[in-house]
């Protein structure tokens, strides 16, 4: 039986990752942090280091820039996975010229099959202006589609604004 799916949306630096980490801690003791970012420069390394230093030592960390669930196959019903974040996962697939619909379908199927609880973090890109470039507009469309698909299967979803959770659907524990 699949666990619950919790979806945490927010803008850049809105507090969504901190909220998701607190939620994951409330959900269980065997916490798995699935990082989707690729560290390509010093600025990203510093951001990753800041995120890591904010967590206790009792987290298991998995680097998964493309296949989130490859490292989660041994997890069970009592485990809680935090995927941070869907936006970086989409970016990685776009930069690798992946079939985005196929990757989204695979991600959704994997989420549904996961036996533990899962918290998924993503950026809400629909509140800003229209991107200047064709690639930027494609990214906005895809991120919107990915967010909608994940929200549709989530047991609960919140939007984080200025560090404050705004409930969208369901009830967060």
Provide key terms for this protein.
24% strand; single chain; alpha/beta; 39% helix; 173 residues
User: Mind describing the biggest β-sheet?
Assistant: 7 strands, mixed
The portion of residues forming beta strands comes to 15-25%
Low-confidence stretches: none
Task: Estimate percent helicity.
Answer: 25-40%
Q: Which sequence of SSEs, written as H and E, runs from N to C? A: EHEHEEHHEHEE
Number of helices: 5
Strand order of the largest sheet: 3-2-4-5-1-6-7
Structural class: alpha/beta
Radius of gyration: 15 Å
What average pLDDT do the residues reach? 92
Record field, number of beta strands:
7
Describe this structure in words.
With 173 residues, the chain is of the alpha/beta class. The protein is 39% helix and 24% strand. The protein has five helices and seven strands; from the N terminus they run βαβαββααβαββ. It has helices at 16-27, 42-53, 86-95, 100-113, 134-153; strands at residues 5-10, 30-35, 59-63, 79-84, 117-123, 156-161, 164-169. Strands 3-2-4-5-1-6-7 form a seven-stranded mixed β-sheet, sandwiched between helices. α3 crosses α5 (134-153) and α4 packs parallel to α5 (134-153). The protein is globular and about 45 Å long. The two termini are 19 Å apart. The mean pLDDT is 92.
């Amino acid at each position: 039986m699949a666990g619950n799916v919790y979806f945490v949306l927010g803008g850049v630096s809105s507090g969504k990752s901190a909220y998701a980490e607190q939620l994951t801690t409330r959900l269980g003791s065997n916490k798995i942090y699935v990082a989707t970012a690729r560290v390509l420069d010093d600025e990203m390394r510093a951001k990753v280091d800041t995120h890591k230093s904010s967590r206790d030592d009792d987290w298991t960390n998995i680097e998964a820039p493309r296949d989130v669930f490859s490292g989660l196959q041994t997890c069970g019903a009592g485990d809680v996975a935090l995927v941070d974040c869907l936006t970086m996962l989409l970016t990685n697939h776009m930069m690798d010229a992946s079939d985005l619909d196929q990757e989204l379908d695979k991600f959704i199927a994997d989420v549904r099959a996961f036996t533990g609880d899962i918290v998924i973090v993503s950026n809400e890109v629909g509140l800003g202006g229209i991107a200047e470039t064709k690639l930027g507009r494609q990214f906005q469309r895809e991120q919107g589609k990915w967010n909608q698909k994940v929200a549709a299967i989530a047991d609960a979803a919140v939007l984080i604004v200025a560090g404050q959770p705004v409930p969208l659907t369901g009830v967060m524990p």
